[in-house]
Amino acid sequence: MSKFKMRQTSPVRAALLVAAFLLALQFAAAPFATAQQRVPIVRDAEIEALVRDYARPVLRAAGLGKTGVDIVLVNDPGFNAFVAGRRIFINTGALLTAETPNEIIGVLAHEAGHLAGGHQERLRAQIARARTMAIVSTLLGIGASVGGALTDNGGLARSGGGIALAGAELARRGLLGYQRTEESSADRLALTYLERTGQSARGMLKTFERFASALALTGSRVDPYQISHPMPRERIANLKTLAEKSPHYGKQDPASLQLRHDLMRAKIAAHTSGPAATSRLFRANPRSQGALYADAINTHLRGRPRDALAKIDALIAKQPNYAYFHELRGDILIRANQPGPAAKAYARAQKLDGSKSSVIQISYGQSLLAAGDEKSTREAVRQISQALDRDRENPDGYMLLGQAQGRLGNIGEAELASAEMHYYSGSYDQARIFAARAQQKLKRGSPAWVRAQDIINAKPPRRK
Description:
The chain is mainly alpha-helical and 464 residues long. The chain has two domains: 2-245, no CATH class; 255-457, Alpha Horseshoe (Serine Threonine Protein Phosphatase 5, Tetratricopeptide repeat). It is built from 21 helices and four strands. The protein has a four-stranded mixed beta sheet with strand order 1-2-4-3. Helix 3 (45-61) crosses helix 5, helix 16 packs antiparallel against helix 17 (374-390) and helix 17 runs antiparallel to helix 18 (395-407). The longest helix is centred in the middle third of the chain and has 43 residues, at 154-196.
């Protein structure tokens, strides 16, 4: 018996390795709803508006302008972007690292290439094939090993373990090779979109050069066949000649767009790393708009509202129609427990904001709610509800709406808002509890009652 167990070690190990590979495939194929629960999302009106402005012409050039592609900000310091469903996710680390708008536009063009090329759907098909190949090879290998053990044929038993491992390795390498091909395809499509929109590919090449330098600094030897992306130097070699032939290669970003980019970087650095990081970021020009904006944000975050107001007011005096300076003014005032002046600042920001951001409108509603009187609370309900009509997946908005409805005595609506908050936060059990409580207070068959029933009946995304 012990002899039989000893000979089973190889196929069992093979099966475990294949199982690990299959688990990795499951995570690679996980739907957005599951991924959303693991990804730390950032909501910011200023950054969202800027990145959407970067993406809009590229998405149009890719034939995606009318397909409802969303841009999602991820709170992560790494330089990365990816697609899932009809969403492009981009890390705050990429936005902070990129020195020019053109670098981020190149990243977005690459991700648009994945969407336009249908790479997600084909990747799922490739994963299914790889999974099938791994399972079949495992079953064949285990069968051979068991047969060898039963017939006391040690060579056959050992070869069975080899069959299982080799099949899994072939499946893994095949999948990685497919992914490298799709990455190269997305690079070429990105060049096409940049050319169609009259933009330079210099920023995209600079991104690959940054990757190549980072890889060189590690001193690591990377097997190009063991990774899912082409090597950075290979990508540069494949694209550089075509990029430099473009009449747009030397084109610079407009000064106004560069300023918005600098302000975005200032905000991210201040919120994620503090004064030391913003000083390093703007050491070449410490009196620039970006540096002064970062200083105002840092002062606000350190709890010095009077000084922060003086600094943001100085910026507003220079650029009175920039919506997000007024938004910061509202943030400072609401934190200083001055809801009336905060509401005026948010109202001004909302009026100037061309993107009609739900984030600013919800902040306006929050300041009205903080005022405490019934009239302001009713207006808070109106403002927040309008924002949520455009931005259905905003848990913070539902939390504030629930507070406002509760203050007005609308208990059923308050419970429903709490159910929505939990649902979009991924707490599905709590969402069902609050939805059931809401139905007890709502008129049966009303739109609110039906929405509560939808939450009760909703099946949470399966965890892969």
